[in-house]
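Can you give me the bound-state structure? Components:
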Amino acid sequence: MDIKELFAKQEEMKRKNLNAKNEKESEITKVLTFFIGDQVYGIEIPCVIEIIGVPHITVVPGIPYYIKGIINVRSKVVPVIDMRSRFGKEEKEYNERTNTIIIEESGVTVGVIVDEVIGVLPVYQKNIANSPDRIGVNDNKFIKYLLEMQDGIKLVLDVAKLIYDGDMYLGDE
Amino acid sequence: MAKVEPGMEAMVDVYIFETTALLEQLDEILLRTEKANEFTEEDINEIFRIMHTVKGSSAMMGFENLQMLAHKGEDMFFIIREAPEKMTDVGFVYDLVFQMSDLFKAEIDMIQNDDDYTATDFSEMIGKLEKGAKMLKGELDSAEAAEAAGAADAGAAPAVPADVAPDCTTVRVFFEDGCKMENIRAFMLINNVKETVDDVEIVKYVPEDIESNQDSANVIIDNGFLLSFRAPDVKAVLSAIEGSLNVQSYEVIDNTTAPAEEKAPEPAPAAAPQPAPAPAAAAQAAPAAAAAQAAPKPAEKPKAPAAEQKAPTASSGGGKQSLISVNLQKLDQLHDIVGEIITTESMVISNPELEGLRLESFTKSARELRKLTDELQDTVMSIRMVPLTGPFQKMNRIVRDMKVKLNKDVELVIEGDTTEVDKSIVDNLNDPLMHLVRNAVDHGIENTTEERVARGKPAKGTVKLSAMSSSGEVVITISDDGQGIDTEKVISKAERNGLLTKPISEYTEREIQNMILLPGFSTNDVVTEYSGRGVGMDVVKSNLSKMGGSLTVESKKGEGTSFIIKIPLTLAIVDGMEIMVGDAEFTVPISVIKESFIVKHEQILNDTRRGEMIMIRGVCYPMLRLNEKFGLPSDVNDIEDGIVLLIESENRGICLFADKLIGEQQVVVKPFPKYLSQYDIKGQGLSGCTIMGDGSISLIIDVNTLIGSR
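Here's the bound-state model for the whole set.
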């Protein structure tokens, strides 16, 4: 599933079409949205390599509890993070809806396990909510920005922080 | 391939391949820096290293003329490296180095293609390089140096070549105004003449370096292109010149043999073709021509002029090396694809839908397929893996030569050269090994046997080169039983060179010893052919760090020095025993497994802290249950149901308890993903992982850490 290339093309087409419209109307990027619990999160499409189910996970000792182990993605060994436990939520059994999103940021590839992938959403400047003081710190440090859509607020994750930030503030821990 | 010592023939291919690659690299740097019009420190170092390596390998192959040539080139860049600020007028340096590079290529071409190769005398070029070096030192003025650069800058003296035999005809050719790339046109002209006229012999042409030097275009614009030839039918040649592309006019200069009527075959402006354009105009045309030539085909290699003159047909013909260079990425890709094929294959063959069916011919074909894919996998794996024998054996030659030249009695002992490592590692090992072995012989071993005997050592010095793979690393040791590192000398030298960062008294012995690995450091007071410039360690370090390896020194004064190279096994193959613990599969390197057996309850001893031990043939070994160690839930908890492996490493032993054995398998070690490197997985006793034939991942057990943890 080479989403990246496809979307890059689409995006370019759209950008050409939208050039005339004003800045608030023009599409900035696209996000892949998914559920973790009841909340909808998003990851910007350029980071996404592919979406797979949950393959057999090989457990590796000596790593944090939220990294479930390593998987084989086309002969590449990739670590997988369970987003539920990463965000301090109760873990649940993986089912047929559970997806692994393989993301890449500056040469590091990881898989994130999410409850369910929803789809792809275009992002316009007007959708991005202004709440700078609450975003990117403490509990919300993995959040890049909020998207206010008609069907609710979506939290777009900062992939770089997700990958590089070793520890997360977990409130009661 | 004559003229190479018996036993070295096999190396010629490698030598040609390596040297050609280095020369190409050199040209690339020169072209790039010439365009940017400045040498960075890095460029100078890189050129220096190339020269150094070419020198070394030429010496090894016994091509003394090439060795000498590279030595002089190295000398010149040594001066530049020491005092880069003196490099104000770099033009002649380029000329010299390009000339040298061309000579090298021509010579190598001859080595490759000529059956009766004889060494060319490079004394003329060596003289030029020496002059250039002196000039850089400031001993000569630039005028003389320009002269040293010689024919390359023929612009100053476009006279008829003096050494042309009297029966030659010399023609001065001018090309059309603004036709660009005059040097290439001239080259084409020569080819045209050669093709159209039989029996023509091109004796000489000026400028000589039309193929490699873009500046020669300017010379041609200013002074015309001088071509001397010898032919029975001069007229035919002249008409061929006339008929060549872009030729504006030509004149036959001097010559006693050419018939008078041929002197002016064309009434055209032979006399005043091009003196008009002022130097400024010429200068303007120059960058344009140069750019036009350089831009479209930067990768175009100037062919060796010698080969060109010899036989145009031979240049593409036989004598090619049997080695090809393949991008490692492609190999990785191939390896991955093969892995996927094998996974897919087992998915097809053991497809649940086939269960219970009697498929005789299918089973037969499937077996055939499995056999082939196994073979394919083995081949792909073996492509990347090469034993260290090649680079190790090369050292024999180096030691032998140095022994003779330095008059030292030294013996090289090689151990573990069958250790297989990844191709990329072997490639990068050549230079470091060469430098370290040279250092050991030159610096390490005492200068006289008397010194050695006086210290109570055998008269014959020993340099030992050994390799082994140990827990995810290849360890290569180069040790000598020589004089060891003189720490006092090292620290005083470091002080003089301004390399100290804290007071002398605060340095530990180890720190001082490791100072010799700093760039530009050498305790040898005299620069010899082999070492003393401090470049060796520099090369060693940079090459090793490319592979993520490390270099340490261990030395005892008077007893000897060891250089220890450690390189992580990023892609080494391990013979492994696959074991199951709970759901997880682990690989234990077979080399450490002493035996595997089933134990009875009676054999288990419990120590005071609930630890289990087992007595085997009078030796007591601690027992480690892998499921407990790695926190894996397992159904097998009774010691009699599972299997026990006795493993031993570095004289310590331990028993591992696993659920069951699966079997023996060769596996490719992969490092853990980068993301996990922030956690201490190695400390848990795992050195890496591997992807099995069925696509599952097996973790490789690091025995040394496991033993240490218990």
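A couple of observations. The beta strands of chain A are 27-36, 39-44, 48-52, 67-73, 76-82, 99-105, 108-114, 116-124, 143-149, 152-157. Chain A has one domain: 3-164.
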